[in-house]
Design goal:
Layout (H helix, E strand, L loop, with lengths): L13 H12 L7 H10 L6 H8 L8 H11 L13 H16 L17 H18 L11
Helix pairs in contact: 2-3, 2-4
Length: 150
């Protein structure tokens, strides 16, 4: 682990995962079960506020796949993050850490490592190019134009 890198938190239970996502998705906010249930509904899912409260109380540990998908919609992450021993937990945590560092300016560029003969996946390449475009747009003076060669 390099200097300034956060260690990924231990997220084993559904309650830990939901609490973590609340903290990262709504920093400094107290989100009620009703508010979260409404958010899920707006995004096309269904989750009762009381069920959400039971998850946070640790009373629900084995929800249905439908509930996991509703949580994913509400938080805007892959629903499999909430499954037991999920393979995507590390990916989601790393993604959140990357985005947080990107917003604070700790990360300013990308370098590809371990790329096979096929190159970068299209989605990753598109994402990397969008980050570079955002960075260049922020570096330009207001009303200015891009330097020659861009």
């Amino acid at each position: 682990m390099g200097i300034g890198e956060e260690q990924a938190p231990e997220l084993h239970s559904l309650r830990q995962k939901v609490e973590y996502m609340l903290e990262k998705t709504f920093p400094g906010q107290k989100v009620s079960g009703r508010t979260f249930a409404e958010l899920v509904k707006e995004r096309g899912g269904s989750l009762s506020h009381s069920y959400f409260s039971n998850i946070l109380a640790g009373k629900v540990t084995q929800p249905s796949e439908e509930i996991l998908k509703a949580l994913g919609l509400g938080f805007g992450v892959d629903w499999r993050f909430f499954k037991e021993e999920s393979e995507v937990v590390g990916d989601v945590v790393a993604g959140l850490q990357f985005l947080a560092k990107r917003r604070t300016g700790e990360i300013g560029g990308l370098a590809g490592r371990g790329i096979d003969d096929d190159g970068l996946p299209a989605e990753l390449l598109e994402f990397a190019l969008s980050l570079l475009a955002d960075t260049k747009a922020k570096e330009r003076p207001e009303g200015g134009t891009a330097p020659a060669g861009e």
